[in-house]
């Protein structure tokens, strides 16, 4: 994927009321460009309208930055991040706090490796050490398997019928007519279904049904 298609910009994220770390100077020199800099307060104001940022941050500031972003309730899986200056291998739960992690670099990584990888990340690639990929893959495989099994077991026969209707693209009215129930009852069932399969809306529920219901 080339740069014009991916259309992402690296931003340096640094704590409010502080100056950016000196570590960024060498990165900018090696990249041959000055990277825009942003603080959590500024990011909170712009992220809804501008989703094309990849946030580059010093892992040593992780706690401060995460506390700010979580306070503003903006850190989620859609926010792309790159962590640098990582001292030791993070635990899986720490990795999961970092949004959509696109890159991770240890303090011991040579600058030329970091620069090459950052250029690739801007163009749509991901640079994560193999052991980090393994951690995340193991976690999501386990999570997907167990959540889907427990969710399917907990669904009632009526809820399964409604999910199968969602697979076909049926509206609430059409579901109500086909199952001889009211639209209010359909909405009530959908509310319970969303909770049980851990989705937020009808589109996600439809995707879940297509992936997990055979018929």
UniProtKB/TrEMBL annotation:
Keyword Oxidoreductase: no
Name of the featured protein: CsgBAC operon transcriptional regulatory protein
Species of provenance: Vibrio mangrovi
Keyword Cytoplasm: no
Gene Ontology terms: biological process: regulation of DNA-templated transcription
UniProt xrefs under SMART domains: HTH_LUXR (SM00421)
GO molecular function, one term: DNA binding
Residue span, HTH luxR-type domain: 148-213
Coiled-coil region list: none
InterPro entries per the UniProt record, alphabetical: Sig_transdc_resp-reg_C-effctor, Tscrpt_reg_LuxR_C, WH-like_DNA-bd_sf
Domain of life of the source: Bacteria
Keywords in alphabetical order: DNA-binding, Transcription, Transcription regulation
């Amino acid at each position: 994927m080339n740069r014009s298609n991916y259309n992402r910009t690296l931003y340096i994220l640094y704590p409010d009321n502080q100056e950016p770390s000196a570590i960024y100077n060498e990165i900018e020199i090696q990249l041959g460009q000055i990277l825009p800099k942003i603080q959590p307060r500024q990011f909170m104001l712009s992220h809804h309208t501008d989703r094309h940022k990849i946030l580059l941050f010093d892992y040593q500031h992780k706690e401060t930055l995460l506390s700010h972003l979580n306070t503003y309730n903006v850190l989620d899986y859609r926010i792309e991040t790159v962590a640098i200056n990582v001292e030791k291998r993070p635990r899986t739960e720490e990795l999961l706090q970092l949004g959509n992690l696109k890159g991770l670099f240890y303090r011991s990584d040579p600058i030329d490796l970091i620069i090459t990888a950052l250029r690739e990340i801007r163009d749509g690639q991901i640079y994560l050490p193999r052991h980090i990929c393994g951690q995340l893959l193991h976690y999501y495989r386990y999570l997907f398997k167990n959540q889907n099994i427990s969710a399917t077991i907990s669904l009632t026969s009526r809820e399964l019928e409604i999910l199968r209707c969602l697979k076909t693209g049926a509206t609430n009215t059409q579901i109500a007519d086909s199952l001889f129930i009211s639209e209010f009852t359909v909405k009530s069932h959908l509310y319970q279904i969303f909770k049980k399969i851990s989705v937020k809306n009808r589109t996600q529920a439809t995707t879940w049904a297509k992936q997990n219901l055979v018929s």
